[in-house]
Design brief:
- The structure is a single chain.
- The chain is built from six helices and seven strands.
- By secondary structure, it is α+β, with helices and mostly antiparallel strands.
- It folds into two domains: about 55 residues; about 140 residues, Heat Shock Protein 90, CATH 3.30.565.10.
- β6 and β7 form a beta hairpin.
- The protein is globular, with a radius of gyration of 21 Å.
- The C terminus is likely disordered.
- Bound molecules: adenosine-5'-triphosphate and magnesium ion.
Length: about 240
């Protein structure tokens, strides 16, 4: 119901945003210009809130498969390092700890986890600092994904509200990023641990189920990752 409404809000919002931008490009007085800029910024903010809410309330299909998580995190970090959130004072390092880093995971959900947690880490370090993303195997049946920053940290009250939707304190945030990460960990049958020291930094750890490694191209198996599914008659009612 709420998700349906959020979805419906998008079209009129896009229309308002478009109109305001057209007005902004026309000949307007110096007094009106800042008002138009506020309108543009605020429609963008509303758009972000709606997008985040839809991601939270109406996630796409969950598709878990064996994933080499350290590689996926490094690949995501390469994009993230180019994002406007980052500044030259920030560093993001992905490291591979001991043990197998193969997890049974949904690749898109894991990319989302990276963006949400890395985005938070950068916001918590406005003066710059290092974010260390570490992936390691634990006990043979779990994979640990950790995001450790050198930011302002959280006190007990902030920690208590960390996963609560709409309870964020970052400017321009909708307070949904951590709630989405929590939901994603649950979908995987995993969990999230948060530790923080005010003034020193925070560490967010996801514990995910491990998976057997898949054969990779170049290891003598012709890159065959998994046999194709056997052809089977389309189920009744299926079709495009
Ligand atoms: N790494 C961190 N260091 C310090 N505080 C954090 C950190 N990550 C999250 N927080 C605190 O937890 C709150 C909730 O985080 P969350 O990601 O859910 O929301 P947000 O970042 O404010 O908004 P959104 O993610 O929807 O843009 C933040 O607003 C901030 O107060
Ligand atoms: Mg966030």
């Amino acid at each position: 119901m709420a998700a349906g409404m959020a979805h419906e809000l998008r079209n009129p919002l896009a229309a308002i945003s478009g109109c305001v931008q057209v007005i902004g490009r026309g000949p307007i007085g110096a007094e009106q210009r800042p008002l138009v800029e506020v309108a543009v910024q605020e429609t963008e903010r509303l758009n972000r809130i709606i997008r985040d809410f839809l991601q939270y309330a109406r996630p796409g299909p969950f598709q878990a498969a064996p994933v080499e998580l350290a590689g996926l995190m490094e690949e995501t970090a390469r994009l993230f390092r180019k994002s406007p959130d980052m500044s030259p004072r920030h560093r993001v390092v992905v490291t591979r700890g001991p043990g197998s880093t193969w997890a049974r995971a949904d690749r898109d959900r894991m990319r989302q986890v990276f963006w949400n947690l890395a985005g938070n880490a950068i916001k918590a370090m406005p003066e710059g600092g290092l974010l260390t993303v570490q992936v390691s195997g634990e006990g043979g049946d779990r994979v640990l994904l950790s995001f450790a920053d050198e930011g302002h940290g959280m006190d007990t009250d902030a920690l208590r509200r960390y996963f609560q939707p709409f309870e964020g304190t970052f400017r321009e945030g909708s307070g949904l990023g951590a709630a989405i990460v929590y939901r994603i960990a649950e979908e995987h049958g995993g969990r999230v641990r948060v530790t923080s020291r005010p003034g020193r930094g925070s560490e967010i750890q996801l514990v995910l189920p491990a998976a057997p490694p898949l054969a990779e191209p170049g290891d003598g198996q012709d890159g065959a990752v998994a046999p194709p599914p056997l052809a089977s008659p389309a189920p009744a009612g299926a079709g495009s």
